[in-house]
Amino acid sequence: MTPRPSEFDLIAEYFAPLAADAPGAYGLGDDAATFAPSAGCELVLTVDAIVEGVHFLPSDPPADVARKLLRVSLSDLAAKGARQRGYLLTTAWTRETPVEWIAAFARGLGEDQSEFGLSLWGGDTVSTPGPLSFSLTAIGEIASGCMIRRSGGQAGDNIYVTGTIGDGALGLKAAQGELDAPVQDLAALVARYRVPSPRVGFGPRLVGVAHAALDVSDGLMADLAHLCAQSDVGARIDAASVPLSDAAAACLARTPALIETILTGGDDYEIVFAAPPDAAGEVDSLAKASNLSVTRIGKLTDASLGISAVDVNGKALTLAQKGFRHF
Amino acid sequence: MTPRPSEFDLIAEYFAPLAADAPGAYGLGDDAATFAPSAGCELVLTVDAIVEGVHFLPSDPPADVARKLLRVSLSDLAAKGARQRGYLLTTAWTRETPVEWIAAFARGLGEDQSEFGLSLWGGDTVSTPGPLSFSLTAIGEIASGCMIRRSGGQAGDNIYVTGTIGDGALGLKAAQGELDAPVQDLAALVARYRVPSPRVGFGPRLVGVAHAALDVSDGLMADLAHLCAQSDVGARIDAASVPLSDAAAACLARTPALIETILTGGDDYEIVFAAPPDAAGEVDSLAKASNLSVTRIGKLTDASLGISAVDVNGKALTLAQKGFRHF
């Protein structure tokens, strides 16, 4: 284990390079960053915090911890229709954190910065007795007034999701040794849990098309409930139409009770959105243009009908667990 | 002790009211906030993290913990010449954190929001096994291109500080029972340590006047060294001219060795800045207009002369401790 560098050396060695492409980050050599949104645009800001032992495990690969932290925020921006521009990061390290762990964490951020086209703008590095904890503020931009809210859904809108649902929650079970599946399926699910794919290419295309949207982080049913609450509508989901990966479909075929994990588990980081029926063709075109599968899974209804998921016979599923609770 | 409410109840009860005045916060009912800077302005962003047991004590009043967290960021914005507009907050609570503690923490934020004219725009609430930890991203705005950098200082510039120096570090000693002083002096110093006064009225007036600035958080000599490093200059401080509160002056008179604590201790949250000699009159006028004492304490020099603090006889003081190190 290499001796621990000072705070200033850590920043210079591992984090300042992540700021090299952002003129307003001043090489992390000042007290604040500056940013001017493009003409006609406004800022979109979101923040997430993660704690070792709660949101990630000490044994998780540090690059994956970093990438997931960044991607979770990018997912929020994408679901709102915004384009990512930069981020601020706080890191709380223990005296025992190996410098190799920090280096790998920074390397993960660097890889994702290249993939998603944004830069580190600033941050704060502090000491903690443990657990490790991090927070990340992501900044994006969008044409002024165009953020896709949770609140615009209308009864009669189609409900769509991007990608596949349930892999995150099944991946967590797999990582904890609680899922019985072929080894390649376990690996695929764990990979999706550890490193989600924020839909940054698709989300901004939904501006002006989707009435309401958010990303699936707490679980499909819980996040749909957030949308319904803000839009004052109900929802009816056809459980059989919820798109599954091959690995998730195989798990569900073996253990039908996993439908609950799939519908209510968290960590999917797909976009769930509502769009009017006359936008169905445009949604399909946008999905095709983004090379992304987008699936209609149900309809928004009158608020009085509540929120339900029904099976192929139209019978409502009973879901005990409503989604991830942070306490 | 009241039973712990859910995450959503906590937010609705204690934090959503802090967002009521910011239309772009959407009542904390969406996934992101929006903000458009005023015409001709750009955003200035800074973030700080604090950890219980490292940056504050479990016995500290929760409202003061919150107010200091906010004020430390406001101090950064002010030293850069920016005007504060809003902030994002992450909170990591344990299952045992009394709801009364959380309520008092939020109350502290609310009081300071009123005092400083900004709003909560968003955040994230997570669980931790402990210690409590928080991060705060502060967003301000400034005329584009006008942020006061660390890097603009020139040899020959006068060095100034606002307010008084050393109260924060002496206050920490006092809070830890390590300072011998009359009880009213101890109380005054502890109060300054717990709740600093960010110079938000004065900092923005320095735009176009100061060549370089930052706030005194790591300690006067260390922060001056940051300015000198970025500006590629040296500095010579007249120790006797460093402004002291009555309480700090009395401590120093009793224990002359405390000059080291005063010059190198952290947590002052005053602004140290460099301005050319021909701006001396304007600096005095701005200070008067802000009803704030601003004191000339030395001069920037050629880089080759290094950074020194000299006594009344012009003899360099030997300062072992260069300032707060975060590890």
Strand order of the largest sheet of chain A: 7-9-6-10-8-11
What is the average per-residue confidence, as pLDDT of chain A, rounded to a whole number? 95
C-alpha Rg of chain A (nearest Å): 20 Å
Number of self-contained structural domains of chain A: 2
Largest interface: A-B, 66 and 67 residues
Keyword list:
32% helix, homodimer, 2 domains, four-stranded mixed β-sheet, 9 helices, six-stranded mixed β-sheet, Phosphoribosyl-aminoimidazole Synthetase, Chain A, domain 2, alpha+beta, 327 residues, 60s Ribosomal Protein L30, Chain: A
Fold blueprint:
The structure is a homodimer of 327-residue chains.
Chain A: H1 7-15, E1 33-35, E2 41-51, H2 62-79, E3 83-93, H3 99-116, E4 119-127, E5 133-143, E6 158-162, H4 167-175, H5 183-194, E7 212-215, H6 220-231, E8 234-238, H7 246-254, H8 259-264, E9 271-275, H9 280-290, E10 294-301, E11 307-310
Helix pairs in contact in A: 2-3, 4-5
Structure description:
- With 327 residues, chain A is α+β, with helices and mostly antiparallel strands.
- Chain A has 2 domains: 7-143, PurM-like, N-terminal domain (60s Ribosomal Protein L30, Chain: A, 2-Layer Sandwich), CATH 3.30.1330.10; 158-310, Phosphoribosyl-aminoimidazole Synthetase, Chain A, domain 2, CATH 3.90.650.
- Chain A has 9 helices and 11 strands.
- Chain A has helices spanning 7-15, 62-79, 99-116, 167-175, 183-194, 220-231, 246-254, 259-264, 280-290, and strands at 33-35, 41-51, 83-93, 119-127, 133-143, 158-162, 212-215, 234-238, 271-275, 294-301, 307-310.
- A 6-stranded mixed sheet of chain A has the order 7-9-6-10-8-11, sandwiched between helices.
- In chain A, strand 3 (83-93), helix 3 (99-116) and strand 4 (119-127) form a beta-alpha-beta unit.
- In chain A, helix 2 packs parallel to helix 3 and helix 4 packs across helix 5.
- The first copy, chain A, is globular and about 65 Å long.
- Strand 1 (33-35) of chain A pairs antiparallel with strand 2 of chain B, so a sheet runs across the interface.
